[in-house]
């Protein structure tokens, strides 16, 4: 992956804790424009917000 023209290692990508299941998940390219708004690791966790 590249960021600002430089290659970024997977280990250096940001991660968050899912608010539903409590597991850690890493940044994905599909979230590049909305990473600050991502709260859940999957669609299943988003549906089961409890």
In short:
This protein is of the alpha+beta class.
Give an overview in words:
The protein is α+β, with helices and mostly antiparallel strands. It has one domain (2-47). 10% of the residues lie in helices and 20% in strands. It has one helix at 43-47; strands at residues 2-3, 6-7, 15-17, 24-26. A two-stranded antiparallel sheet has the order 1-2. Strands 3-4 form a two-stranded antiparallel sheet. The longest helix has 5 residues, at 43-47. The model has no long low-confidence stretch (mean pLDDT 89).
Query: How many H/I helices?
Result: 1
- Class from helix and strand fractions: alpha+beta
Largest sheet data = 2 strands, antiparallel
Report the order of strands and helices: EEEEH
Global shape: elongated
Compute the separation of the termini in Å: 34 Å
Mean pLDDT: 89
Number of strands: 4
Unreliable spans are: none
Nearest-angstrom radius of gyration? Answer: 12 Å
Q: Which strand order spans the largest sheet, edge to edge or round the barrel?
A: 1-2
As a percent range, the share of helical residues equals: 10-25%
Beta-strand content estimate: 15-25%
What's the quaternary structure here?
single chain
Number of domains: 1
């Amino acid at each position: 992956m590249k960021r600002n023209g430089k290659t970024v290692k997977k280990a250096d990508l940001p991660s968050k804790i899912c608010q539903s299941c409590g597991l850690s998940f890493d940044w994905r390219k599909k979230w590049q424009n909305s990473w600050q708004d991502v709260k859940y690791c999957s669609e299943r966790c988003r549906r089961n917000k409890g």
